Amino acid sequence: MSENEDTDSTDVDVKSTTSRLDSVQKSILRELVRKHKHIVESKLTNGVWVERKKKEWKTIETEFNAESLRSQRTAKQLKKAWENSKRIAKNTVLSRTLSFDIFKTILNVN
C-alpha cells in the first residue's frame, strides 16, 4: 500500500439506515422550521443565501437534537424530512382539490 492511498474509511459516503421521524419529532421539526422560516424557506438562491440556509439548518439540527431524546439527526436528514413532509402535504391538498372537482363535475355543479 502506497503512502498516497487513503485508508481512512470515514470518508466513504455510506447511507445509514435511520428510523423515520415519529409524531413528536415531526412536531419539533415543524416548530423549528416555523421559527427559522424567514431564512430556510427564502426563495433567494445566491451564494450568500445558500450559506445562510446551511447555517440555519445546522442551527435547527442543534436545537432538534437538544429536544429529541430518541435519536440524533443531521441537518441534511432534517432538511430532507422537511422537504418530504411539504411534498406530502402539497400532494394531499392537490388530491383533495382534484377529488372535489371530479365530484362537482359528476353532480354537474358549477
Keywords for this entry:
4 helices, about 110 residues
What is the secondary structure topology, with strand pairs?
Layout: H1 23-35, H2 37-40, H3 47-67, H4 75-107
Helix pairs in contact: 1-3, 3-4
Largest sheet: none
The residue fraction in helices comes out at 55-70%
Number of domains: 1
Beta-strand content bin? under 5%
**What is the average per-residue confidence, as pLDDT, rounded to a whole number?**
82
User: How far is the first residue's CA from the last residue's CA?
Assistant: 76 Å
Shape descriptor reads extended
Tally the helices: 4
Helix/strand structural class: mainly alpha
> How many E-type strands?
0
Assembly of the depicted chains: single chain
Tell me the radius of gyration.
Answer: 20 Å
Task: State the order of secondary-structure elements, H for helix, E for strand.
Answer: HHHH
Summarize the structure in words:
The longest helix has 33 residues, at 75-107. It is extended and about 55 Å long. Helix 1 (23-35) crosses helix 3 and helix 3 packs across helix 4 (75-107). The chain has one domain (21-107). It has helices at residues 23-35, 37-40, 47-67, 75-107. With 110 residues, it is an all-alpha fold.
Offer a quick outline of the entry.
The protein is mainly alpha-helical and 110 residues long. 65% of the residues lie in helices and 0% in strands.
